Amino acid sequence: PPQMIKRLKFNPKGTTLTADSPENSKIKSGGLEAMLASFNLDFGIKDADPRMLRLKDAKGSERQSLINELLEEFGQEARFLFANAKGTALFWMGELEQFANPQQARKALENLERRLKRIRALFTEVGANPKNSRVVPDLVDGEPTYALESVTAKGEPVRMYVDGEGVRLRLSNGQFMPQKLSPQAARKRLAQP
């Protein structure tokens, strides 16, 4: 007699994704949107396009070309999360940080949120003039961070960064002042004629 072929029966539990699923449901189901929503950050999620996916493995001029294309399309201060086959990636002003698991991504987002809160608090502490000061994303030593961009009484642009030890000032020539300041000293530095 002919043998019965055993067939596997697919009984999905919860939401399933297929190649035909809409992009929005793929992102939401991955938890990326929910994770980012749990932070008070000023950037979002983008759907991965081929340039973003090639960026991780690209080298030299090809990598720079991809970065330039993305910055041209999204702006010089472009920053966003996107999902790829290797997990989650953060594109931050031309730098790419890849996270192998959600815990790594969450930790990086917590650090960014902490830095953003510190900079916003510094804005208030130094009494920066809102007309010529703003909180901006930046890179310091290749690491994503935030800065308070302002102008001194002399009209010299400066950027201020906060860490656990004090306030660092980056002058218009791109150099950091050698010593760290207290918020009060930074306020005086801004007000010096």
Brief synopsis:
The protein contains six helices and eight strands. It has helices at residues 23-29, 32-37, 50-55, 60-74, 102-125, 183-191, and strands spanning 44-45, 79-84, 87-92, 95-99, 134-140, 143-151, 157-163, 166-170.
Helix fraction, binned, reads 25-40%
Gyration radius (Cα, Å) is: 22 Å
Count of distinct structural domains: 2
Element-by-element helix/strand order = HHEHHEEEHEEEEH
Number of separate helices: 6
Average pLDDT figure? 85
Number of beta-strand segments:
8
Strand count, sense and barrel status of the largest sheet are: 4 strands, mixed
Decide which structural class fits the backbone: alpha+beta
Defining traits:
elongated, four-stranded mixed beta sheet, four-stranded antiparallel beta sheet, 193 residues, alpha+beta, 35% helix, 6 helices
Topology:
Layout: H1 23-29, H2 32-37, E1 44-45, H3 50-55, H4 60-74, E2 79-84, E3 87-92, E4 95-99, H5 102-125, E5 134-140, E6 143-151, E7 157-163, E8 166-170, H6 183-191
Parallel strand pairs: 1-2
Antiparallel strand pairs: 2-3, 3-4, 5-6, 6-7, 7-8
What does this structure look like?
With 193 residues, the protein is α+β, with helices and mostly antiparallel strands. It folds into two domains: 23-100, no CATH class; 110-191. The protein is 35% helix and 24% strand. It has six helices and eight strands, in the order H-H-E-H-H-E-E-E-H-E-E-E-E-H. The protein has helices spanning 23-29, 32-37, 50-55, 60-74, 102-125, 183-191; strands at residues 44-45, 79-84, 87-92, 95-99, 134-140, 143-151, 157-163, 166-170. The strands form two sheets. It has a four-stranded mixed beta sheet with strand order 1-2-3-4. The chain has a four-stranded antiparallel beta sheet with strand order 5-6-7-8, with helices on one face. Strand 6 and strand 7 form a beta hairpin. The termini are far apart.
